[in-house]
Amino acid sequence: MTDTILRHDWRLDEIEALFDLPFNDLLFQAQTLHRAYFDPNQVQMSSLLSIKTGACAEDCGYCSQSAKHATGLEAEKLMPVEDVVAAAEAAKEKGASRFCMGAAWRNPTDKNLERVIEMVEAVHGLGMETCLTLGMLTQDQAGRLRSAGLDYYNHNLDTSPEFYGNVITTRTFDDRLQTLAHVRDAGINVCSGGILGMGESRRDRASMLRELCTLPRHPESVPINLLVKIEGTPLYDTEDLDPLEFVRTIAVARLLMPGSYVRLSAGRGEMSDEMQALCFLAGANSIFYGERLLTTENPEADRDRQLLRRLGMKTEQLLETEVKAAKVPCDKARAG
């Protein structure tokens, strides 16, 4: 990594000025800085599993799992540990280096946390990085997860503090910042980003990124999601976001947080290969890998492999998977 000093004092007007740059100039700056911190042709891959689906008490306007929205999603209980481990093993076989587990809770009870800790320890034992998203945490809960070996905790800001109340009313923006502080104080890596295309303005996108890049320490992982419109949610009829505006946001995130992994997350199923390629050029260097993201569709693993090959991009895990496949009979290789 470069010795460049990371800034934590970005002003909103400075960030808006980045958004306003000519598209080619913005991508050039982002790609240049990206190369100073990362291999531009390397992508980190994570896999995400919903370990407890539906019946969430929150009213997030984008989410199919809210009990307040009529989306037809059936609630499911917390998965057995052995099923989670089997899913993690399958994800590792397909090239994922990090396994993320999400539960539709406002915040976990201490009893539920004990079962999740078993999952963390078991997945960690497979040699994979672990990540959780369980809602709000207390300081004590964050400490317990750290003791269990948790590597990352995901808690997105979702949008700007100014626009936040248009999307969520059951918890405040400050609640989210407090959980991030608990996670950081416990020594767990922070994964935090937002969702684009919820009707927010460019200024809102700049403001959300400002909240992230002015944290005392930048998040190690910054997922940028494109709204997946789900019938029955309040945001279902929201106007589509200009794809180039999404790419711009990726580029600005890279310029503000050059040492962070910027992840293409939800919404990739709606993105063309060309749009994803522009996102990689803009500085994205992580993706979720697999067929589903919690309850929404994600590009199939084979499509991801094909796209990365077409772009000449690799991951260490994908290379290992391909080498392993080359050493087994063809029928088994095709099955993997």
UniProtKB/TrEMBL annotation:
Q: How is the cofactor bound?
A: Binds 1 [2Fe-2S] cluster. The cluster is coordinated with 3 cysteines and 1 arginine.
Which co-factors does it depend on? [2Fe-2S] cluster; [4Fe-4S] cluster
Which GO terms fall under molecular function for this chain's record? 2 iron, 2 sulfur cluster binding; 4 iron, 4 sulfur cluster binding; biotin synthase activity; iron ion binding
Q: Where does [4Fe-4S] cluster bind?
A: 56, 60, 63
Which HAMAP family does the UniProt record give?
BioB (MF_01694)
Pathway(s) this gene product operates in, as recorded in its UniProt entry: Cofactor biosynthesis; biotin biosynthesis; biotin from 7,8-diaminononanoate: step 2/2
Q: What class of enzyme is it?
A: transferase
Record GO biological process = biotin biosynthetic process
What name does this protein carry? Answer: Biotin synthase
InterPro entries tied to this protein: Aldolase_TIM, BATS_dom, Biotin_synth/BioAB, Biotin_synthase, Elp3/MiaA/NifB-like_rSAM, rSAM, rSAM_sf
- Report domain Radical SAM core positions: 41-265
Q: What keywords were assigned to this record?
A: 2Fe-2S, 4Fe-4S, Biotin biosynthesis, Iron, Iron-sulfur, Metal-binding, S-adenosyl-L-methionine, Transferase
The superkingdom of the source organism is Bacteria
The record describes its quaternary structure and partners as: Homodimer.
Q: Which residues bind [2Fe-2S] cluster?
A: 100, 131, 191, 263
Q: Which reaction does it catalyse?
A: (4R,5S)-dethiobiotin + (sulfur carrier)-SH + 2 reduced [2Fe-2S]-[ferredoxin] + 2 S-adenosyl-L-methionine = (sulfur carrier)-H + biotin + 2 5'-deoxyadenosine + 2 L-methionine + 2 oxidized [2Fe-2S]-[ferredoxin]
Q: Which family does it belong to?
A: Belongs to the radical SAM superfamily. Biotin synthase family.
